[in-house]
What we know:
single chain, mainly alpha, flat
Amino acid sequence: MYSVCSVVPSSSATMAPSDAQAAASYGFRLFLPPATTTIHKRIQFERQFMSDAFDWKIIDENPFFKVKTQKSSVKVNEFVPREVVDKRKNQTNQVWQVILGLGRYPVF
């Protein structure tokens, strides 16, 4: 469900997706729930902000000290052996051969 910003009274602040699309077509701004990565980034920022405030003796206690977020399970860099790339490169068309070749053996 979506909610409309301060246009609909709070008792009826939810609507069906089709109603949300209709409201958007009239220029109403819809608030969608933030993604989990957005939430984790905001918590990370607040944790660092409060940590610095505590280090600089602006506050007596860091309220975000015990707040934990989940760790990312996404592998960012994964090594692919040269033999696998060469084998796949030979099985594709010329466009993909160029893409794989430049991705694996960059020429700068």
